[in-house]
Amino acid sequence: KTGKKYGVRIEGLAFERDILRDMPIWHHVFADPKIRRLTNATTSKCLRSKHELQTVGEAEDLAAPLIEMNGRQSSHRPNNQCNCRDCTEIREVTTCEHPHLCMVRSQELLDTLPPKWDPRVEQPEDYEGNFNNIPRLRGEEIFDYRLTTTGGLSEIFRVFTDRNHTPSNDTYIRRIEMNNNINLSIVATDGSCINNGQDTASAGAGIYFTENDPRNRSLKLPQAVGNIKLTQSNQAAELLA
């Protein structure tokens, strides 16, 4: 109840694969509702009891023999008599008598995930480069251009979210070309608000490169964007800047 009161929920444009893989597979909040039907099947009971399957990553690993890697066919054969290395290991470790069926069920569970939450599909992090390796020539702070949330599961929760807004489960792919040609630009930004905290508050921001530079800007924070009302405050002005 407290979480609902303060708008606590999972929200973000994209998440790194480690986070996607750590999500629970059986009670995945963003999975297609048909996952409930798959959950109660006999094969799923084997996945829970013998394979001790709990996370998306474990399901992905179990289903891996079904996937062609770089155009090369897996040695796995689509039947429960398959004696490939993966099936043999599964039988020895879990005592599962139908490894192929469990692989297929794992894949079916993964197929209920929308693109944003499926670690098997193309994700923004594939094109964001290694941000931490960008050289700092003068100790400057580099703008973090990444859409992807990194870290653990605790990093994916947000507070005071808009309950009237439904986040998209589509992926946002931006192909960023990284190169070694570093051209530094020195730019000053600032935001402020007149009558901050009052009903008559008015916020704005400024961007300054050099004198008479055409990129210089003065910006006024709009009262609303679409149906969303924007708060006129110092904090909002700084974000605008």
TrEMBL record:
Annotated GO MF terms: nucleic acid binding
InterPro entries in the cross-refs: RNaseH_sf
Domain of life: Eukaryota
Record's protein name: RNase H type-1 domain-containing protein
